[in-house]
Amino acid sequence: MVDYDVDINEARRDMAALFRWTARERLHEGIANHYSMAVTADGQQFLMNPYGIHFSKVKAGDLLLLNAQEEPNTTDVAQNSIGGMVDVTAWGIHGAMHRNNPGARVILHLHSPYATAFSCLKDPVLPPIDQTSARFFNRLAFDNGFDGMGIGDEGERLSHLLGNQRVMVMGNHGIMSVASSPAIGWDLMYHIEVGCRNYMLASASGLALSVMADDVAEKTAQQWEDYESQAVHHLAAIRRILDEEEPDYAAL
User: Fold this and answer.
1) Is 172 domain-assigned?
2) E strands of the chain, at which residues?
3) Residue 224: inside a domain, yes or no?
4) pLDDT for 197-241, tens place per residue?
5) What is the pLDDT of residue 2?
6) Residue 31 belongs to a domain with what CATH number?
7) For the chain, what is the mean pLDDT?
8) What is the dihedral of CA 180, 183, 184, 188, to 10 degrees?
9) What is the DSSP letter of 73?
10) N or C: which end of the chain has fewer CB within 10 A?
11) Residue 96 to residue 82: CA distance in whole angstroms
């Protein structure tokens, strides 16, 4: 029997809400992106979305319970099949991340439009041009060694690059947030996309950017961290909307 240190059903509902809301925000890419959440104290057993279910249709009961120490049977790894299977790239990345980073409770990975475009820049440094981009001042990890789609050793390589940061810019690939809860993971993911969007749009003007002084940027980033309880309210607000408009997300 699994000894959960979280309410497994509530964890499923929180994660399902994130899938649904990500689809509403149009931040996903087909069925190619993945979210996972560790549900045991050692961080090795985790929930993850199955292959072939669109983010907009994920239900709490759809999430797979996997063990980072036990690679799924080849018959359970989806390459061209659909229906409750484990996506090979999802397992490659999330399996390695949970296996090698037991403190990583929630791992969200997207190819969101603006963060992915930002990840394609030769020098993807996010300057603090507004309070949202300033949230990530000196708080991003970077991967500049893209070597394929998370199959084989790619996940292992990625799992050692995070350091003490909670958001990774995955060069030529996308974005990843790692957090202690679904609420914080989503709040980071949502705001890094907004920060990248603001930067990319401002840059597209061709005009000089107004970049904050380092001390102001650091002060703003610390204020975000002091204000992190707002992430709980962010997710709660999302769930209230879904409870009214898409209550099936919570079905077990």
Assistant:
1) yes
2) 34-38, 45-48, 64-67, 77-78, 86-87, 106-110, 141-143, 167-170, 174-179
3) no
4) 999 999 999 999 999 999 999 999 999 999 989 999 999 999 999
5) 44
6) 3.40.225.10
7) 90
8) 140
9) P
10) N
11) 23
- Please tell me the distance from the alpha carbon of residue 42 to that of residue 230, in angstroms, as a whole number: 27
| DSSP symbols for 114-164 | HHHHHHTSSS------SHHHHTTTT--EEE----SSS-TTHHHHHTTS-TT
Residue 126 phi, psi dihedral angles, 5° rounding: -95, 105
Exposed (0-12), middle (13-18) or buried (19+): which is 1, by Cβ within 10 Å?
A: exposed
* Nearest partner of 36 among 173, 201, 155, 129, judged by Cα: 155
Q: Could you list the residue range(s) of the whole structural domain that residue 33 is in?
A: 8-120+141-180+234-247
**Number of domains observed in the structure of the chain:** 1
For tokens 């202690």, the residue is: 180
**46: how many CB neighbours lie within 10 A of its CB?**
26
To the nearest 10°, the Cα dihedral for 54, 60, 63, 67? 150
User: Does position 80 have pLDDT exceeding 50, yes or no?
Assistant: no
Best-predicted range by mean pLDDT (78-87, 92-101, 158-167, 232-241): 232-241
Mode of pairing for the β-strands spanning 167-170 and 141-143? parallel
Check residues 103 and 109 and name the one with the higher pLDDT.
109
